[in-house]
TrEMBL record:
<keyword id="KW-0460">Magnesium</keyword>
<dbReference type="GO" id="GO:0070179">
    <property type="term" value="P:D-serine biosynthetic process"/>
</dbReference>
<dbReference type="GO" id="GO:0030378">
    <property type="term" value="F:serine racemase activity"/>
</dbReference>
<dbReference type="GO" id="GO:0030170">
    <property type="term" value="F:pyridoxal phosphate binding"/>
</dbReference>
<dbReference type="GO" id="GO:0003941">
    <property type="term" value="F:L-serine ammonia-lyase activity"/>
</dbReference>
<protein>
    <recommendedName>
        <fullName>Tryptophan synthase beta chain-like PALP domain-containing protein</fullName>
    </recommendedName>
</protein>
<keyword id="KW-0456">Lyase</keyword>
<dbReference type="GO" id="GO:0005524">
    <property type="term" value="F:ATP binding"/>
</dbReference>
<dbReference type="GO" id="GO:0000287">
    <property type="term" value="F:magnesium ion binding"/>
</dbReference>
<dbReference type="InterPro" id="IPR000634">
    <property type="entry name" value="Ser/Thr_deHydtase_PyrdxlP-BS"/>
</dbReference>
<dbReference type="Pfam" id="PF00291">
    <property type="entry name" value="PALP"/>
</dbReference>
<dbReference type="InterPro" id="IPR036052">
    <property type="entry name" value="TrpB-like_PALP_sf"/>
</dbReference>
<dbReference type="GO" id="GO:0018114">
    <property type="term" value="F:threonine racemase activity"/>
</dbReference>
<feature type="domain" description="Tryptophan synthase beta chain-like PALP">
    <location>
        <begin position="56"/>
        <end position="345"/>
    </location>
</feature>
<dbReference type="InterPro" id="IPR001926">
    <property type="entry name" value="TrpB-like_PALP"/>
</dbReference>
<comment type="similarity">
    <text>Belongs to the serine/threonine dehydratase family.</text>
</comment>
<keyword id="KW-0663">Pyridoxal phosphate</keyword>
Length: 359
């Protein structure tokens, strides 16, 4: 017969064990089936699953890498989904290909983009034997412009504002009777981008949270629709530069608001949420965390130095987020021990970027 003290110890151990098991079930979602999502979303989990199958022959299944040094800095295990190795150098080929494969027969594809979607659409058009017309801000990095031209797309330059881009693209669509593929708000683009999550969750069964850079919200939108259905307890956190914080402000206010068109070193994230991506961000994304320009540069340089991965600053935004004080405070490492970070792209002008990052 155990003594009173032993009984108390056994009881306390049993209670602690049950509590730990509940925590694990809640976090890992063991035996929790996929959950239905609101019916009025522009994209369903099935759209994402179908898109993942559709684009699979056309895109790379990118690797997930880890880095001991970064784990130490973050105080937890980080899993990096390396879309930096994706075709055209970013995840954008997924959504562009999904849209191109479903576009009206023979229609030229038209878009506006600061670069990564432009390259992706240009390649997707070439692979599906279509013409591509791309409106780019005149400030887009030369390396991105050259790549778009290299895939055979026709380029029209415009002023570097969201309004100027949209107007020029509309004009071009009418002129060539094309099929306009919005870089982030087009449902087929959103579901194509969601294929990142389909792969990532297949590759890693132990993620507690996912950090995703946010521009127009296509990437986080597709990821959230799939991940919150497949694994409802997984936290989805958007990472945004403070200078272009429309997603953060929209979440705070509960309605879609813009930003001040300030500049950011993360040029891929200067776009705005749209009518299709906003409801998903509003309802399925747990939180948006913003980071300063200095944090973005530091995090980007860190990945270059520690992982030898040439990511662009837009990808550095996710890394800066997971290393930020705000993230640590909101998502303590003892509860969120394994965090996935999307290294979304690696297209940059190396000479210019290294001068900026290491200045
Ligand atoms: C490298 C990179 N990361 C993230 C994003 C943001 O994606 P989304 O506009 O779908 O939010 C972009 C958008 O251009 C990008 O180029």
């Amino acid at each position: 017969m155990p003594s009173k003290a032993q009984q108390r110890y056994l009881l306390a151990s049993a209670v602690a064990g049950v509590a730990a098991a509940i925590r694990i079930i809640r976090r890992r979602n063991i035996h929790v089936p996929p959950q239905p999502l609101p019916a009025d979303f522009p994209v369903t989990p099935k759209d994402v699953v179908d898109a993942a199958k559709r684009v699979r022959p056309h895109v790379h299944r990118t690797p997930v890498l880890t880095c001991h040094g970064l784990d130490e800095l973050a105080g937890r295990s980080l899993k990096f989904k390396c879309e930096v190795f994706q075709r055209t150098g970013s995840f954008k080929i997924r959504g562009a290909t999904n849209a191109a494969l479903q576009a009206p027969e023979n229609a030229p594809l038209v878009t506006h983009s600061s670069g990564n979607h432009a390259q992706a659409l240009a390649l997707a058009a070439r692979s599906t034997n279509r013409e591509a017309h791309v409106v780019m801000p005149r400030t887009a990095p030369a390396v991105k412009r050259a790549a778009v031209a290299g895939y055979g797309a026709h380029i029209t330059l415009c002023e570097p504002t969201n309004k100027a881009r949209a107007e020029a693209a509309q004009k071009k669509t009418e002129e060539v009777q094309g099929y306009f593929v919005h870089p982030s708000n087009e449902p087929r683009v959103i579901s194509g981008q969601g294929s990142v999550a389909v792969e990532f969750l297949e590759q890693c069964s132990d993620l507690d949270a996912l950090v995703v850079p946010v521009g127009g919200g296509g990437l986080i939108g597709g990821i959230a629709v799939y991940a919150k259905w497949k694994r409802p307890s997984l936290k989805i956190i958007g990472a945004e530069p403070k200078n272009v914080d429309d997603a953060y402000r929209s979440k705070q206010k509960g309605e879609l608001v813009g930003h001040d068109d300030r500049d950011s070193v993360a040029d891929g994230l200067k776009t705005l949420l749209g009518s299709n991506t906003w409801p998903v961000v509003r309802d399925l994304v747990d939180e948006i965390i913003t980071v300063e320009e200095s944090e973005i540069k530091k995090a980007t340089a860190l990945i270059w130095g520690r992982m030898k991965l040439c990511i662009e600053p837009s990808a550095g935004v996710g890394v800066a987020c997971v290393l930020s004080e705000a993230f640590r405070a909101r998502y303590p490492a003892d509860e969120y021990g394994t965090v996935g970070v999307i290294l979304c792209g690696g297209n940059l002008d190396l000479a210019k970027a290294s001068a900026k990052l290491f200045a």
